[in-house]
Structures are given as structure tokens and as C-alpha cells.
Amino acid sequence: MRAFLALVAMMGCYFAAGPASAEPEPYQVPELCKPDAEGRTNHQACFDASDPNSPSWLLAAINLGSEAFWKGDIETAAHFYDLCDASGKQTFSDIGLHANRAAVYRKIGRLDDSLRDARYAWQLAQENKFDMFGNPLSERARFYALMYIVETFHDANAPEFEPVVRAFLATPARDEMDLENQAGILTEIGRYDDALKVSTELLASFPDHANMQNNHCYLLTLMGRAADGLPFCENAVAKEPDIAPYRHSYATALAALGRCEDAEAALAVARQLEPSVVIYREPLVCAAP
Q1: 3-state SS of the chain?
Q2: What pTM did the predictor assign?
């Protein structure tokens, strides 16, 4: 999603299965890959201590990719995701992995790769499975997996788009974070009236929330109401100036209002903050003053 989503940690993990054999050799997990007394694992230390393509190396790579994704570091996320098996057949994978990776690849313009992962995630969702072992899929995991893949199907004009939209809207939103993300997705796929209804209700309850203000601004701008949206963008940028999507929303609103130099300056900051995101590299269409 172009708008800055309220992300939730939904881990996708890889475990190398390896070729089948009658008596597989036991794998010795490096000490640095074992959780500490509080159950935490240093995935970078584990990655560095593991042999390439070993089970612990693959697991650490996917976890490092997921951590980077949640932090908004899309370039690093793609780097670690690329180290792992793409198909999900040679290694263990779950719906979170494929949905997260689909979102990352879409952001950097690799739509074919994104579509591949989105289809793996959608297959698991249809089967109500969290992973290849058939563990059940929770409503929370379903919501976020569908959220991350729906834009890929939209951008690819894929036949799965409408079924995925219906499944996403049928999955209950648990809290304001879910509603915020639902509004963002509806915006991205062009269902503006539905998105505006949700966004307006959220802002009534959380009038000072920077992310909600940003998304509301971007939505109003897309609806041709940039003058109404601009104050929300200004507030979001003032609260959190180093968030690239906020800068991009601000630039979009300014361009729609004919403030071309200001729009280019805001877009330049977004590009500097997240240079690998494709949409920030696209030129703005500035309205005549």
C-alpha cells in the first residue's frame, strides 16, 4: 500500500526441508540461534553464525526480511527475502511470509514476483490454513494477509482481485488499527466513498492521529478535494517529518493545488527517506496554478 499502514507483526518463517532421505542427519542449531532466557533471538547474529542455506540461515534471513519490512526498510527486506526459496516448496512457509513478501516486491516494482507470492498466500487463505502443515488460520492473520495481497491483484488486473476484495471486506476489523488499514486499502483500490466513510469515523475518534490524518489527506486529494485534505497532510508531516509516505501524500496534495515547487521539495524528501520505493520515483503531475 502506498499509504503508511498501521503495521502489525505477522511473522513468516522459513525452515529448510532439504532433500528426502531414509535417515536424515540431525541439524545442529548454532548456539547464537537459540532464544535467550526471555525468548528473544538475535536474528542477525544467528544469520552470521549459520552456514549459507542451512535451516537456521534461512530462518534468520526471513526473519530479518520481516523485521525490515515492519520498519519500512523495503530495500533491506527485499534483500533478505531474495535469499530464500521463492516457491515455498523446498522450505517451510506460511501465509505471513508470502503476504509480506508480496507487499515488498510490489513496492519495488517486481509485480511478477509479488503476484507469485500473493497467489501462494491466497491459496492458503482459501484453504483456511496458516501454513503448509495445515495449522488453522486465525481471523487476525487472514485480515492482514489479504490486506497485503489485494493491491498486487489489483495492479496486475488479476482474476483473483474481486474474490480477494470480498474476502478482505468479509473479515471482521478488530480495532481502530484494522479499520485504518481497511480505509487505506479501499483508497488504494479506488473505492473512495467507502474509504471516506471509514476514515471520517476514525478521525472523529482520533483527531490527532498522524497516520489517520495522512491517509485522510491522501484520500481527499484523490477525490479531487486537495484543499480540504491539505491541512491533514500538514499536521501529519509536522508530527512525524521523517515518514516518507506522509511526505508523498503532502507532495500529492500540493501538486493538485498547483504549488509545484513545494510539491517537488516534499517529494524529494520522500525519495531521500525511501529511495527504493517505485512510486516515489514517479514524477508528479502538477496542476496549473
Answers
A1: CCCCCCCCCCCCCCEECCCCCCCCCCCCCCHHHCCCCCCCCCHHHHHHHCCCCCHHHHHHHHHHHHHHHHHCCHHHHHHHHHCCCCCCCCEECEHHHHHHHHHHHHHCCCHHHHHHHHHHHHHHHHCCECECCCCECCHHHHHHHHHHHHHHHHHCCCCCHHHHHHHHHHCCCCCHHHHHHHHHHHHHCCCHHHHHHHHHHHHHHCCCCHHHHHHHHHHHHHCCCHHHHHHHHHHHHHHCCCCHHHHHHHHHHHHHCCCHHHHHHHHHHHHHHCCCCHHHHCCCCCCCC
A2: 0.76
